[in-house]
Design a protein that fits this description.
By secondary structure, the protein is of the alpha+beta class. 67% of the residues lie in helices and 8% in strands. It has one domain. Strand 1 and strand 2 form a beta hairpin.
Length: 190
């Protein structure tokens, strides 16, 4: 029983590492364009193990499932901005500007492509989008807590610094007074 349990734990650990690696790889394929988190058609096609042309044809055949707020084509300027982050084809770049798919359109793709691979990949992609959203919420929450602490303690620190400055200037004045050249009657010491 112990051997089985150890093998299960090792396999479970490997599965978790594999899942994290998949999530990380997908996260690197998510870009922010027009203030939306999106994935590009050629990245999705590679993940679904289909050609980009096949993916785009499936989307065109089912255009009613992909309204403008689910999917859009990049402008030349947007694509140029991403070019340094992505690898282009050997022919010197793609002939067409890529399409950007939001989280909602990625969810629609599994029904359009209708394959086991599409379903499997979609589940992983949706989990990645959820993790990104959770991270963003946690980040905002943490940022708000830090701002509250900053406001609360800045006033206290301001008072502390004022007292320290007063003590330091008072000490400096005392030292300057002790070092000054005395004027007036001086007693001679014997």
């Amino acid at each position: 029983m112990k051997v089985f349990k150890k093998k299960f734990e090792v396999a479970n650990c490997d599965l978790k590492k594999n899942r994290l690696m998949q999530l990380s790889a997908i996260q690197n394929k998510i870009y922010e364009i027009r203030s939306q988190k999106v994935m590009l058609d050629f990245d999705l096609a590679k993940m679904y193990e289909v050609e980009t042309k096949v993916l785009n044809q499936a989307v065109k055949r089912n255009a009613n499932r992909f309204p403008g707020d689910f999917m859009f084509s990049l402008t030349q300027k947007e694509f140029q901005g991403l070019r340094s982050q992505i690898v282009t084809s050997r022919r010197g770049g793609s002939r067409y500007l890529p399409s950007a798919f939001t989280e909602q359109s990625v969810a629609m793709l599994s029904s359009v492509l209708n394959s086991e691979k599409a379903i499997e990949v979609n589940i992983i992609i949706i989990r990645t989008f959820v993790l990104i959203r959770q991270f963003a919420l946690n980040y905002k929450d943490l940022q708000q807590k830090i701002m509250k602490l900053k406001k609360k303690y800045n006033a206290n620190f301001k008072e502390i610094f004022q007292v320290l400055n007063l003590l330091l200037t008072d000490k400096q004045q005392q030292e300057d007074f002790a070092k000054r050249e005395r004027i007036g009657f001086k007693k001679e010491s014997k």
